[in-house]
Amino acid sequence: DLVMTQSPLSLPVTLGQPASISCRSSQSLVHRDGNTYLNWFQQRPGQSPRRLIYKVSKRDSGVPDRFSGSGSGTDFTLKISRVEAEDVGVYYCMQGTHWPGTFGQGTKVEIK
Amino acid sequence: EVQLLESGGGLVQPGGSLRLSCVVSGLTFNSYAMGWVRQAPGKGLEWVSGISPGGSTTDYADSVKGRFTVSRDNSKNTLYLQMNSLRAEDTAVYYCAKDASGPDYWGQGTLVTVSS
After folding, report:
1. Phi/psi of residue B29, each to 5°?
2. Facing residue for A103 by CB, picked from B46, B99, B108
3. Dihedral over alpha carbons A10, B102, B94, A4 (to 10 degrees)
4. Among A40, A12, A111, A25, which Cα is nearest to B45's?
5. Which of A71, B51, B101, B107 has the fewest CB atoms within 10 Å distance of its CB?
6. How many C-alpha atoms does B63 have within 13 Å on its Cβ side?
7. B-chain residues near A102 (CB < 8 A)
8. Residues of A with CB under 8 A from a CB of B
9. Stretch A28-42: mean pLDDT, rounded?
């Protein structure tokens, strides 16, 4: 079975400082159509998840440019260039290349 | 404006059944794969099931295979999840989501509680 592994699972950050979350897949996420369906979601307390990044590095409309995604194959990273108070929540990577989709365990971002 | 509105959650006894619905508006429903994602209390997200735009292809997480059935009625812009033989570990908020390869729209969720 495909497994998505995130690290760290908890990430205390100082306001204005950068943050980085790693996501590794147990299989390549390159689809036969050539795309890599690796997504990043933010879930604030009490809210539904919100997609931030799709296809590894494409930012969704309305997502601040301090969020960026990178990676290829099996290793991916979400970076926040300067953390703001509204970024507190849990972040999930999710692969959509191999059905059914698979989420990582989640990384809880909190302010120090 | 795209909206996904789930309904059908509630309290059910172990071994019981429940049918969730998700009405979608604001987009061409029959153009998109759809899915269900759940979140147990205090836990992470788990992909439950996906269905192709026309409904001919479906897939399930191993944890629900053989017990849950996903379907859709494109004439009613509605997605369904039939849940049978429910277990305590199925207790979760169930979200309807558009685009199974990376959901860009989510519903608000409906809570399913399996308990005697």
Report:
1. -55, -45
2. B46
3. -40
4. A40
5. A71
6. 14
7. 47
8. 1, 37, 39, 41, 43, 48-51, 54-55, 60, 90, 92, 94, 96-97, 99-106
9. 97
Q: What is the pLDDT of residues B9-35, one digit of tens each?
A: 999 999 999 999 999 999 999 999 999
From residue B49, alpha-carbon distances to A45, A55, A68, B82, B99 in Å are: 24, 21, 28, 11, 12
Rounded to whole angstroms, the maximal C-alpha distance in chain B is 40
Nearest to B102 among A50, A96, A104 (CB): A96
Q: Looking at this protein, which amino acid is placed at residue B80?
A: Y
Count of CB atoms situated within 10 Å of the CB of A50: 18
- The token pair at B88 is 């305590």
Query: What is the pLDDT at residue B85?
Result: 98
Specify whether the CB–CB gap between B83 and B67 falls below 8 A: yes
